[in-house]
Amino acid sequence: MNTPPNTSDADAAVRIAVVREVTEAARKGVIAWRVRDQRLRALFCIEAESRAFDTTRPT
Question: Whole-prediction pTM value?
Fold first, then answer.
C-alpha cells in the first residue's frame, strides 16, 4: 500500500532544510542569522519575545 506523506512530515522536512541552509550560511559567515522577521518566527514557531536564534556562533 502506498500512502501519501503526512502533511506535518512534509512541513517538518521543509523546516529542517531551511534551518540547515541558513545555519550553514551563517557558519560560513555569509549571513548573520537574526530571526526577527515575523514570518520566519512563525515558520519556526518562535514566540515574538523569544531571543532564540538571534545569534549564531560559527564553529
Answer: 0.44
Q: Which three cell numbers stand for residue 8?
A: 506535518
**pLDDT per position as a tens digit, 26-42:** 777 777 766 666 666 56
Q: How far is the CA of 29 from the CAs of 23, 24, 25, 55, 57, in angstroms?
A: 10, 9, 6, 12, 9
Among all chains, which residue has been given the C-alpha cell 559567515? 29
Contacts of 9 (CB under 8 A, 6+ apart): none
**Unique residue bearing C-alpha cell 537574526:** 34
11's grid cell: 512541513
